[in-house]
Design a protein that fits this description.
This protein has eleven helices and eight strands. With 331 residues, the protein is an alpha/beta fold. The protein has an eight-stranded mixed β-sheet with strand order 3-2-1-4-5-6-7-8, sandwiched between helices. Helix 5 links the parallel strand 4 and strand 5. Helix 2 runs parallel beside helix 3 and helix 5 packs parallel to helix 7. The chain binds NADP nicotinamide-adenine-dinucleotide phosphate (NAP). The site of NADP nicotinamide-adenine-dinucleotide phosphate has 28 residues, from helix 2.
């Protein structure tokens, strides 16, 4: 565990991210998992700060409509928000969502891929992967790859679109993987599952995915990014993330943990400032108003090797079920 991680943890509730208010006038924004928690607050802020269109991408339409009602009541801009269905554990749903974005939106300036989860027990999705790895890693990667072409086409002389993936500094506490040769495969086996460990590792893998997307979004002629890719961490926040942690020991842990958690509103400020950092955050990790160094398992030759292996495993797994990934990921 790094000293930065421990310091962050101790000051988490008391030193919160700056409440910046950049203008999003003219911008079209997607926020996944916008019905509750951090995604809800981020979506509200995008509307408050002037975005032209904010797509609330939600697994359950009724929950999304409820979020829309609350956002509209506060902002008085009901024409700005739309609720679109998106189930991040189902490739068909992701593909349908991306097709809708690619055909119906004039431009896509900001995609905040926030939907994420922490499973308390090992559960496989229809595609056969452990659910946390499916939602946080595979599906997030798939959605990112499907949206990048539209975002690329939305670049203008004065604005570079931002693909913002929500990660976690829990990636920093992963000191060892259960396998260095097939890590992604290993974490999809029940014998290697532990809820907190699985979640943290999924977020380390998200950082690996970000590293792989950086060369992919480079302009073929200029080498400059057509899209900025960032990973942001909101800090430990009160939300529904541990909703399935109902065992008595989790309940006690959550009660103690809540003493240091910040609110989701405070955490979501990181999403807002994160999309406003420009090129200096491209390929980087944003937390508490600073660009953080890569996680320990991203560093050095070992980090580079693991990144390549995980990216290969993630894309191989996707290509098996959604072959267009081969082309989207330029493999
Ligand atoms: N809270 C923290 O302390 C913390 C710290 C660091 C990073 N994060 C990250 O922040 C992001 C948001 O988490 P949160 O804390 O706000 O948790 P949350 O309150 O549980 O919100 C998670 C959101 O993701 C959606 N989601 C989960 N699985 C989905 C699926 N299969 N398909 C579509 N949507 C799905 C949820 O939809 P439903 O309501 O329909 O389930 C919900 O809208 C996550 O990526 C999390 O890892 C959180």
């Amino acid at each position: 565990m790094t000293s930065t991680y421990i310091m962050d943890f101790l000051k988490n509730k008391w030193v919160v991210p700056k409440d910046t208010r950049p203008s999003f006038k003219g911008r079209t924004v997607i926020v996944t998992g916008a019905n509750v928690g951090l995604g809800y607050w981020a979506a509200l802020k995008f509307v408050q700060f002037g975005a032209t269109k904010v797509i609330l991408a939600c697994r359950t339409i009724s929950k999304g409509e409820d979020a829309k009602r609350r956002i509209d009541a506060q902002t008085k801009r009901p024409e700005t928000t739309e609720v679109w269905q998106l189930d991040m554990s189902n490739y068909e749903s992701i593909k349908a969502f991306a097709n809708r974005a690619n055909t119906h939106l004039e431009s896509l300036d900001i995609a905040c891929l926030n939907a994420g989860m922490m499973s308390m027990s090992f559960k496989r999705t229809d595609a056969g992967y452990e659910e946390t790895m499916q939602v946080n890693v595979l599906s997030t990667t798939y959605l990112a790859l499907l949206l990048i072409p539209k975002m690329r086409a939305s670049k203008t002389a004065s604005f570079t679109p931002v693909l913002e993936i929500v990660g976690s500094s829990n990636a920093d506490i992963v000191s060892k993987l259960v396998s260095d040769t097939e890590p992604f495969a290993a974490y999809n086996k029940p014998e290697n599952f532990s809820s907190a460990g699985q979640y943290s590792t999924s977020k380390l893998f998200v950082n690996y995915v970000e590293q792989a997307l950086v060369p992919l979004v480079a302009n073929k002629e200029t080498g400059k990014p057509d899209v900025f890719v960032t990973v942001v961490c909101p800090g430990a926040c009160k939300s529904e993330l541990a909703r399935n942690a109902t065992a008595w020991y989790f309940v006690i842990f959550k009660a103690i943990f809540s003493l240091i958690q910040r609110s989701s509103e405070e955490g979501s400020r990181t999403y807002i400032s994160g999309v406003d950092q420009g090129e200096k955050l491209h390929g980087g990790f944003w937390k508490d108003d600073t660009i953080r160094p890569p996680a320990p398992l991203q560093q050095g030759e070992k980090g580079k090797k693991l990144q390549k292996i995980v990216w290969r495993e993630v894309t191989d797994a996707l290509i098996k079920d959604v072959p267009e990934v081969k082309q989207l990921a330029a493999l």
